[in-house]
Structure prediction request, 160 residues.
Amino acid sequence: MKQARLSITVSSIAAVVVALLVYVSVSYTTGFSQFFATQSIFFSFLFRDNCPWRCMPTPPPPGPTKPPVPEGQLPSFPGATGFGATTPGGRGGQVIYVTSLVDSGPGSLREALMATEPRMVLFKVSGTISLKSDIVISEPFVTIAGQTAPGEGIQIRGAQ
Prediction:
């Protein structure tokens, strides 16, 4: 069985002794109220970047940060430009799933679009929805996320 060997140099022992002396002298002169702050300074000096207790918080990585965008100016989707780029759509509203390809009834696209509150319409089915009459969207703030349809996607045909 191999045993691990600990290699200690004179400079590392000297660094520990100096750090310990600074720690003791600062602890003694500042009193007990500063004990924990002094302890943090001691351990961060002793272990530097390899402190196993995360004595000092790590700074955020350098780089540009984006300023917060006011609610009314959030893009509808990443990269949106033009007239409707900042429309809220169904953001923050109820999520309604289309689970049926029939024209009307529970789980239909018509039922989802005729709801009265802000809503996001997502699809759990794929295929063709054959409409028998037009769907009139009278309540605003709706997002239809056709890209959520599984498989070959969703197709709507029929009424104008």
Residues 10-50 form one domain. The longest strand covers residues 94-98. Residues 42-48 have pLDDT under 50 and may be disordered.
